[in-house]
Amino acid sequence: MKYAAQVDETNVVIDVIVVGDEGGITWCERNLAGRWVETSSTIRGKFAAKGDTYDEANDMFVSNKPVEP
User: What is the pTM assigned to this prediction?
Assistant: First the structure.
């Protein structure tokens, strides 16, 4: 199973959905509005969550929420 993060025009994650292994991001791009980036706990730094930012230069998701000590 794969997961896709929808990012807005400023690269902020606005949604994360489950997509099938077949098609994945390609299916999202063809059938859903917006820009989609694959996410998981093993690629792109971290599993994307709403409010995170997709850092295109480093091809990774960055948490925007402060980490509590």
Answer: 0.85
